[in-house]
Amino acid sequence: MIAIAPSSALVVRRKVRPRRRKSVSTLRLILPAIAVIVGGAIAVQATMRAAEAKSTRVATNAPLRMENPRFTGAMKDGRAFLIVAKAADRDQASPNRIALVSPQLTRGYGSSAPTQVIARKGTYDEESGALLLTGDVQIGNGTDYAFRTEKAVIDTRTGQVVGDGGVQGASGGNQVQADSYAVSDEGDRVVFKGRVRSRLTPGH
Q: What angle do CA 143, 106, 168 make, to 5 degrees?
């Protein structure tokens, strides 16, 4: 009886050892897999958070769209001006800067002798009062003159219109072409400079 007991105990221990080794081997295989899965999940979450943050920044910096905007004010001589457009985008980074689509400026709005300037595109700075118009710019007062150019810079504080993109049109019934121009004095004074060419019409 005494000799058998140790032998039985020894047999039992020999049966347990392989099970422990098998469990350890299984854990060695499972733990790295779990680590990979957890690491992948963390990486995915980090990527999603970064994408959400980027999307939020883009949305915050996106221009503010306005349909049929109107901007009004008064010039130094007391006359009113009106700027209208089909659409406008306010720059979120520079709120005073506004991009205009098909803008139209009326100097002397509401008066008996207004001057109008229209263009394909424009940029208006509300702080400085500067209005830049580009693309088939047309300037006229409906009676005395009408010009076409590719660029016009208007100071809405003084009402002066200047441009150096070349100009051609009619003034006082005569055809005029020049490199640059300036319109001032409530539209009563138009000055042409640079290779000025004029074709006089008899009777004017």
A: 50
